[in-house]
Amino acid sequence: MAEAAFTPRVFSGIQPSGNLHLGNYLGALKRFAEAQERGTETLYCMVDLHAVTVWQEPADLTRATRELAAGFIASGLDPARSILFNQSQVAEHSQLAWVFNCVARMGWMQRMTQFKDKAGKNAQNASLGLFAYPALMAADILAYHATHVPVGEDQKQHIELSRDIAAKFNHDYGVEFFPLPEPVIEGAATRVMSLRDGTKKMSKSDPSDMSRINLTDDADAIAKKIRKARTDPEPLPSEAAGLAERPEARNLVNIYAALADMSVEQVMAEAGGQAFSVFKPRLADLAVERLAPISGEMKRLMGDAAAIDAILADGAGRARAIAAPILRRTYDIMGMVGAPRS
Ligand code: TYM
To answer: Is 204 a catalytic residue?
Structure first.
């Protein structure tokens, strides 16, 4: 398929299911803002329908959705230039997801590592939605014919499944209708690790709050978490290769590089040989300098829930204007009868 025939369009999503953390910021939000600055058309979604694949208290979901929207805006996403909305306001996501439930194969879904991780030992008790999660994700992307999907490393398998779904639909119906979306996994912090264990991903579900930096943390909390971050006793090596067997050191260097917009090599040239007693305070200062304005702005925005809701409603309207004709065309391709159009 001539993928170049599709106009570049960026789509990505984040679940409103708890605190936004540094991994979400460096792996996703910061890169979402960069895509916006490059002038590509950008759509970003608070995926509330994905969040409810596991239990969410209704009041918590409402709050988390607004807080996520505030996090997007505070990270530099401009609701006038990017389309910001929550998934449940655009019914086309669910409608196209049903179509993709009929395209995707059980075997494909069973291979998804996120399902295996989240369902745990008791997979029989997981919701059907958790199993079908990647088909909804494919629908999120393909309802807009999005071509590029900036994500952290952990979402790569899901984007590949979206490509498989698009390709199978195109093949089965003999069309070149859906683009094969590209995962965009770039930069020094595509997989930010826990501050307590450099072999585990930084995650909102880690029971230890010391394992992650939340975007709502104040300067003291950020500095304390970095000071207490687990490290080995050696000073930083002088070259990036020396980080290979040192996951905690590598993680802190990656975080520094991503926050400072530097390459890992540049950080090593500057900080190689430093003891952590020197490097950690520098990292803490940098993190506070970059993150404190975001948390301050989030707090301010959270003071006006009606304004956030209005932004999401406006974004949903603009999103629907793109997705509705694509869904209708999908149904037409499949032979679904619809009202005649003039
Ligand atoms: P979610 O909500 O778990 O995470 C949102 C984004 O943050 C990235 N991320 C990380 N990046 C680096 N280091 C980490 N420790 C880290 N933790 C999280 C994730 O890779 C992601 O980019 N299924 C998706 C949401 C989704 C979506 C979509 C994404 C739904 N529909 C369509 C793209 C396109 C998820 O659960 O992300």
So the answer is: yes
Question: What's the structural domain count of the chain?
Answer: 2
The finding on whether 202 has its CB within 6 A of some atom of ligand 1 is yes
Is residue 170 domain-shared with residue 272, that is, in the same domain?
Answer: no
In this structure, the answer to whether residues 126 and 26 fall within a common structural domain is: yes
Residue nearest to atom 24 of ligand 1 (CA): 14
Q: Can you spell out the DSSP letters for 76-113? A: T--TTTEEEEEGGG-THHHHHHHHHHTTS-HHHHHT-H
**How far apart are alpha carbons 196 and 248 in whole angstroms?**
8
Q: How much distance in Å is there from the Cα of 342 to the middle of ligand 1?
A: 41
Indicate the length of the chain as a whole number.
342
What is the four-CA torsion angle of 242, 248, 252, 257, rounded to 10 degrees?
40
* AA letter at 175: V
**Structural tokens at position 243:** 């980080």
Digit-coded pLDDT (tens) for 19-61: 899 999 999 999 999 999 999 999 999 999 999 999 999 999 9
Residue among 261, 294, 238, 244 nearest 22 (CA): 294
Position 197 in a domain: no
**Residue pLDDT, tens place only, 282-340:** 999 999 999 999 999 999 999 999 999 999 999 999 999 999 999 999 999 999 999 88
Q: Quote the tokens at residue 303.
A: 């003071």
**pTM for the complete prediction?**
0.96
